[in-house]
Amino acid sequence: MAAYSTGGPGPQQPHRGQGRPAAEPQQPGPDAIYEVPWDDPAPAGQPGGQAESRSGAGSAFAPGTSPVPGMSPKDFERLCHSVDKAFSQFAKAVEKGAGEVAEALGSKPEDNLKAYEEMARKRQAKARKRQAKRERKAAEAQYRAAQAQAAAQAQAAQAQARPPANGGWGFPAASAPAPAYPGPTALAKGRFRSSGGLTASGVIMTAIGGACTFAFGIFTAVGIVAGLAAGPAGVVTAVLFGTLTAAGAALLAGGIGRLRTASQLKSFRRIFGDREACTFDDIAARALISRPKALARARKLIRRGLIPHGRIDHEATTLMVTENAYRQYCTLQQHQHQIAESQRAAEEARVAEAAARQSRERDLSDRLTPEQRAFVATGRDYLGQLRRLDESIDDAAVSERIVAIEEVVGRILARAEGEPSVIAGLDRLTAYYLPTTVKLLAAYDNLEEQPVQGENIAASRREIEHTLGVLHSAFEKLLDDTYQDLSLDVSADIAVLQAMLAQEGLVDGPFDVKP
């Protein structure tokens, strides 16, 4: 018996057993009737539908009804449209995810088959190259062995021809071969972990996660539709498949993350080459990323143990991948710290000296007259000239005499600062003695620099050396003269004290103050 559409205007058309008109396919719309064939198709001889004797099994719902109890045909139609739209969006998302996975693996989805074939050809070519390389190495080893054997035979023949050395033993000294340079590949293997495990696990996780996400996603959508009709049991089924879909998506995301990490590790290994350290600016420029992103990737690789000896400096400017580079960095940091400490100490000493000098100048300005301050300043200036000449002159004996003169003159100036009254008797010190001394030392420095040391030059140098000794003695005498008034005052005080003690009967006789 044929089923008929009753919702729309126009003549009614007979339907097949599956619910479609005989002339055109059924399109979803407000008047369409969805039929679910529960029985087998109509037998031969009954093209219009099921036999009337089997109408109890019912191949179609009644016109204007819904397969879900309590749901109107229009609501059921909207539900079907929503499910169809959800399936379309899910299929697009899965297709996009598959495309991203394929791009992460280095190929496009439509080129996977060609990529697999190309990979197989490359593997065969690599196998042939490895076989040829092994054969070439074996031939080279045989050639070297033959050469070594020939050299040993020639050496044995020479040893028999000449008398034995080294006490009769005649063994040639063995020399250890120089260690070969490991090469960039060996260095990279020691500094970076292999990315093969990450790539393999990432591919497996991506494939399994994508398949599970796609399959369980479809089951979840079907379960949602079925759950509306089946009640609580359908809801539980939909929740279960939804959980499995989420697990598959998490597995897919983890696989993609592993592939990205493997790609980043390969990029770092390629950028470093045989270098032990590299700045993040260089890494960012070579990897075509920003500097903060390069720093974040380096920290992630170090945290995951993919760079075993990776270290980042304190300023976050350089990545070091070997212990040797880190030790050199620590040594450099310690050296820079010592330099900074010495500079800070020198600066503190300079500031303290400047403060002491200012304090002394303020004290002198309070106690000394302008003429006396000028005398002290002139003497200090000549002392500075003596120090500079001492640094320029190479003769050790002359340098010792200059240092001795500097010490005596410094004491004279200190005495003048402490007792300004002695400055009146020291006018020749800054007017003649010190200028003449500086002039003689400048002449000695000039004579010492002459390339030819003739008789006249040598005589002049000896005369200046002798004069420096005389000047040292004169300056010592001048220093002693500054204490003459003090000596007289001491003698007077002792005489007065002696008289007072004798007058009081506290002593029997005069003090014996003579040395």
TrEMBL record:
Residues 122-156 form a coiled coil. The chain crosses the membrane at residues 198-229, 235-259. Keywords: Coiled coil, Membrane, Transmembrane, Transmembrane helix. The keyword Transmembrane helix applies. Residues 1-76 are annotated as: Disordered. It holds the Pfam family Halogen_Hydrol. The keyword Translocase does not apply. InterPro entries: ChloroindolylP_hydrolase. It comes from the Bacteria. This is 5-bromo-4-chloroindolyl phosphate hydrolysis protein.
